[in-house]
Amino acid sequence: MSTQDDLRELFQRILPQRAGAIALLLAPGHPQPVWRDENGHLRAALTLVYFDAADSDTPRDVREQEVYLGDEREHPPARLRAYLEGNLRAIPAILAAHGDDADTLLPCDLFAYADLLADDALEHADEFAAALGDPARLAAMNEAAGEAAWRDELAALGLAEHAAEVRALARPALRLHLDPDEEDDDSTCPMGQTRLGGEPDLPPSCAWPEVDGVLLTFVAQFDLAELVGRPAAGELPAHGLLSFFYAPIPPDGVRGHPVRVLHFTDLDELARRPVPAGVEKLRAHAIDLEDEVHFPSLASDFFYESLLPFERVLACHRGRRQGTGEELVPSGPLAYFIAGAERINEPERPFHRLLGHPAAIQGDPYLDIEIAARPQGWDGWEDGTEEALKIHLQALRWRLLLQIDAVEQDGLLLNQDGGFFYFWIPADALARHDWTQARGELQCH
């Protein structure tokens, strides 16, 4: 019997294998599910099926792929077969080891352990299966494979030697999904409830928030105790109510959009406050929270450039100004990297988020807020200079507190032209919970 015939019988005998709501099986419709390709490599047509639940037979996703199995010219056929049999028998353990990340797997990811063939202590299928069923060894192999893949991705960006620094750019966030209340009157909403719009909950002693005599619009409030345990909430206080107010139109002579961020620690003091006459009242929305992980967007590519030597970055920016500069971090591979590295379930607008990195309409939001914080604004700005580069570096100090998309349910949510409103705070002020340092900025079309 040829090797491919032997392996075909092996795969047909052992598959399907299932762990919880995920199963691996031979891809249907292939007359030769295991074959040798034109290069002499052994391949199999495999399918991962994701079911609605562990006890369900209703598929919710199907991923089919031709998987490389090995080359018997590199390993004795009997040893290669023993490894593949052990691999097949260990599929439930491999799926379980991936945990929450199992939803991102492809069939090939379950056969990424060929390094075991270099271990002379492993000879029989039982030994390979035991090695792949050892949680500690499997975790170490998955971590090493992930790190190698990570470095390969960063190599395309010229950042392979900065793997740890790039990983540190990831920030946890909370995606805000808004549901309109059944009634326009939000007087029945529980006191201190997390929500956007409506009437805020304020202590009776607290005057309506204003800046330079301009009364601000209530945007959102968050019950901080509800956020405890969320990855993003580690930078916020563990209790109280965090409330956000903004000026839709900046007052005359005021740079940027004034904001107030208030933290109330005694929830028993709160009372529903009617919106003053002349102040816009946003429609009340309940907020459902979802954990996400963001990397700096393509518009904020300076985060990635800043990992490289200052002089090299300066030379590149000077070259760009003269029309001869190259991309330090290529935008095409960077966009691909960000899309694959972020953990975002719904990549479409609206983008309402608490913490994380901002989405952008045009230009770098970090540079925008840094420029807005300068007394002279953009006056004197000269791209490609050492001073401009230092301003770029200074801009990395800002942290996004809250981003509200103007768009919700095919209509305008905020008084802005289809863009994003950002509440910002310097990183050191966020660490101190000094909300007086919050600032607002707008990007729109």
From TrEMBL:
Region (Disordered): 179-202
Superkingdom of origin organism: Bacteria
SUPFAM superfamilies reported in the protein's UniProt record: Hypothetical protein YwqG (SSF103032)
One family name in Pfam for this protein: DUF1963
InterPro entries: DUF1963, YwqG-like_sf
Annotated protein name in UniProt: YwqG family protein
Source organism of this protein record: Nannocystis radixulma
